[in-house]
Structure formats: C-alpha cells, structure tokens
Amino acid sequence: MIHELYPQYFPGDHKTINNKKSLLYRADRIIVHSNQTKKDIIKFYPDLDTSKIDLVPLASSVILNDSTQITAPELINRPYLLFVGTRDKYKNFSFLLRSIERLLHRNDLYLICAGGGVFTSEEKSLIDKLGLSEMVAQITIQDQLLPLFYRNARAFIFPSEYEGFGMPVLEAMACGCPVILSDNGVFREIGEEAALYFNLNDEQMLNHCVERVLEDQSLRDYLIKEGFKREKLFSWDKTARGYYETIMKLMSHK
Q: Where do the Glycosyl transferase family domain residues begin and end (predicted)?
C-alpha cells in the first residue's frame, strides 16, 4: 500500500524515496487511496506496470451519535474556524494565519487548531506578530469530541499543498461543516463540488472564501448539503471490499 509520494514532491528524504521505489517495483499489487497518488506513481515511475495498481479510497472515521450532544467546551461558545492535524511546512499553517488575520479581527472569530501538538516557537512568534494571540488556540481533542468541533465550526480549512487522501475533508462533511480547501488534485477528487477551493499563491482568495461562507447562508447550506451527499459515497465497506478484491487478485496468480 502506497498512501502518497510525499518525499518526491519535497525532495531531501532520499532513504524514504528509495525505499518506496523499491517497494513499488517489487510489489505484485499496489493499493493507493486516491487517483492522484496513482497519477503521481505514473509520473515519477513511467516504466512501472500500472495494471498492478488498485484504487481503494478511504472513508470518514467520525460518527455523529449521542456523544456529540455533551456540553460544548467554553472555547467553542463563540464562532470559530477549524484546522485539524499536524502543521508541517507543507500544511501551510503560516499561509492560513496570514490569509485570515484581518478577518479574525473584524469578525471576532477564533481559529481552533485541533491536534498537531503545541505551537512551535516560530508559530508563536508569527501569531504574536499578527496580533492573534487571543484569537488562535491549539487544543488536544479526544476522539469522541472531534465531531462536536467539526459540527460547530463556521468552516473547516485545509490549506495543505499535498495529501495522499485527506480524511479530515470527509470527517468535516460527515459532521455538516462547510469545507474550504487548497486547490490540489486529491482535494478536488474527494470534494468535487461540495467544497470551496483557493489558490495557495493567493492569500486574498482564501480570505474571500471564508467571507463567503460566513456571510452567505444559502452558500453555507449548499456546502453542508452537498458535503453530506459527497461523504456518503465513501464507506469502510467499500474500502474493505477493495482490499479483499486485491487479495483475491494476488491469490489467483499463485
């Protein structure tokens, strides 16, 4: 299974690149979780036998149930935007901060960063420089609370430059949270028309996307409705069936 070819896009980790290359050529079957990863494999290894690549998408892991009815923490008692996961360089967290700085000040909004560990000294420095120390918070969320944070967010923002799949996109959609994504191949593949997209070279474009979701209730309702429909196209039953079919292909060649 190859989830993504991240090192090829951000060279430097030669060991990982060589290990993945060896696995790709030695494997009898290759499972990928997105068509984008399949395209990347073909791009970087054009002589590889593509007939042995099987596309098996993942699904959302969050479940909306009674646990989402618990009392909301004080932190989410006012409007906020949500960022989920690690903040590695390719996740473009600094870009996000710069893009929405004025919007946070103007609309009395929080930016909640769920998971990813405490802010680094560099992140704290930028947050302070932008005057956002009272508006940006990092918190560690228990799994059963994550749906609550998705559901109550004004929007979920994922500014990543590259992903192998992007499960938080489906998680947000499953919880009725409008989704705003960087315009890359895998996010278009997952979200299609159920999300807003922005160019990572254009801070104003992201700012405008957030403003639209905040101010246009009909757009917000549309994104929530289409998100529910889109997320339902992915399921762990389909994922399990895809893995099973790959195993059967392997067995038939023995």
A: 77-229
